[in-house]
Amino acid sequence: MTPEDFRKWSRKAADWGADYREGLRDKPVRAMTAPGEIAARIPDTPPEQPQAMESIFADFENIIMPGMTHWQHPRFFAYFPANAAPVSVVAEYLVTAVAAQCMLWQTSPAATELETKILDWLRQALGLPDGFSGVIQDSASSSTLAAILTMRERALGWNGNKRGLAGQKPVRIYCSGEVHSSIDRSIWIAGIGEENLVRIPTVGPRRSMDPTALDAAINADREAGLLPAGVVASVGGTSVGGTDDVAAVCEVAHRHGLYVHVDAAWAGAAMICPEFRDLWAGVEQADSLVLNPHKWLGVHFDCTAHFLREPSDLVRTLAIRPSFLETLGRDGILNYSEWTVPLGRRFRALKLWFLIRAHGLDGLRTMIRSHVKWSQHLAERLRAEPDFRIVSEPVLSLFAFRYLRDGADLDDLNRRLVTAINDDGRIYLTQTNFEGDFVIRFQVGQFDCEEADVDTAFDVITEIARAL
Which of 48, 68, 83, 332 could form a disulfide with 298 if both were Cys (CB 3.0 to 4.6 A apart)? Predict the structure, then answer.
C-alpha cells in the first residue's frame, strides 16, 4: 500500500465509521444471521495473489457486517456495555497508526508517563486515597489473575513461582457465588484448582458474602492444614449486581493476614459519582481493585484500571528482568510490563486521556446518573404491570424481571420471551439464573443511549410478551 493509498483508505474507513454510528438506530441490535452463514461466504483457501482494496472493503460491508452484533447501538441492553465513545475511537486510530509496543519505559516514554498520570486522574475521580497506584490491564480477567497469583505467592512465602505447587499446602481462595466466572478461570490458570475456591454463602438484599461464614471457613481450613491466601469481593456482580460489604470482608480477611481483591469491573465506573460510593464503602482497605473504563465510561475496548495499595507485591510476583529488557543509564523508572502477565503492552492510556479531557468528569457523571435513573424508572413501570415481577431490585442500572402467566411453565415462557425480543431486533437483552429461576436481565449503559430508547424497551418488552 502506497502512502497515498494509505491516506485514501484511512479516510474511507473514518467516513465509513461516522456513517455507521449515525445509522445504528435503523439496524437490528443483534446479528440476524444463522450459524455458519458468514463462514459459508468466505473462501476455504487463502488468495495467492494480491486483491484490490475495493474488493476487500466491499466484502467487509457485504459479508462481515451482516454478521455483527452492534455493541454501540443505543438500545443494547444486554450483558454489560463495551462502549467506544467517538473521541476514544479517534484516539485508537492514532494508537493504531503509531503502532508502538509499550512494554518498557524506553520503548515509548510518553506511554508509560501518560499511563501513570491518567491512572492518578482516575484514582482521584473515584475518591480513592493517596497511596493507591494504578496500571492499565487488557481486561478485568487479567487483573484478577494477577491478584490471585499475588495472593498465592504471598501465602507460599514467595516460593510458588520457584518451586511450583507440588508438595505445598493447598492454597485456598474465598468468594461468594455472585462473582464473575473469570475468578474460576484465574483459579485454574494459577494452578490452585477449582476445589480450592471456597464459595461463601450470601445474605441480605445485596446478596453479600456473609462475614461470619467467611471467618468460619478460614478457621476451618487452617485447622484442616490448608493454606488460606485471599478473598475476592464483588461490587456489582454480572448476574444481578451482587455486592459484598467490602469493609466487613476486609476486616475478616486482614485479621487472618489474607489479601483482598475487589472486582468492580462494571460498577466501579459509577464511583466517579460520590452518591454511589456506599456500594464499595471500605474499598480503601482492599489490597487491590479493578474496574473497566471500557464498560461504562466509554473507553474503547480494551482498557482496564487495576489499582493497588502495595504494587511491590504484584511486581515481586510477575517481574522478570532479563538483560535484553534493561533500560541502561536510567534508575527508578517504571516498566509496566512488570505489573502485568503479558510482556507486550498497547498504548491504552491515550484513549482514556482523550475521553476524560473531551467529556470532563461532569459529562461522564451526567451520563451515568441518567442511565441509573432511566433504568430504575423502567423497573418501576414494569413493576406496575400485573403480569411482570421485578425479581432483583436495581443495583445502579441493572435489574432482572420475569414475565408471569397463569398455568404456564414460567422458565419456558421467559426463555421464549427473551428469544422473541432478540429476534425482533429493536432491543437486545440477556438472561440469568436467579434463585433457581430463569429471569431476564436489563441494564442501561450504552454511551449514546437516550431516555426514549429505554421507553422503547418498555414498549417492546410488553408488546412481545403479550403476543406470545
Answer: 83
C-alpha cell belonging to residue 171: 492454597
Residues 335 and 372 placed together within one structural domain of the fold: no
Domain for residue 351, yes or no? no
Same domain, 449 and 377: yes
Identify whether the C-beta of residue 231 lies closer than 8 Å to the C-beta of residue 249. yes
Could you tell me if residue 400 is inside a domain? yes
Q: Which DSSP category does 76 fall into?
A: B
Q: What is the pLDDT of residue 205?
A: 84
pLDDT over 90 percentage in the chain: 69
In this structure, the answer to whether residues 114 and 233 fall within a common structural domain is: yes
pLDDT tens-digit readout, 159-170: 888 888 888 899
Number of domains in the chain: 3
For residues 198 and 236, membership in a common domain is answered with yes
- Bridge partners of 437, per DSSP, are 434
Residue 63 CA from chain centroid, whole number: 29
What is the residue range of 197's domain?
101-346
Average pLDDT value for the chain: 90
The residue with greater pLDDT, 335 or 296, is 296
* Closest CA relative to residue 381, chosen from 280, 460, 449, 271: 460
Contact between 271 and 286 under an 8 Å Cβ cutoff? The reply is no
Amino acid at 15: D
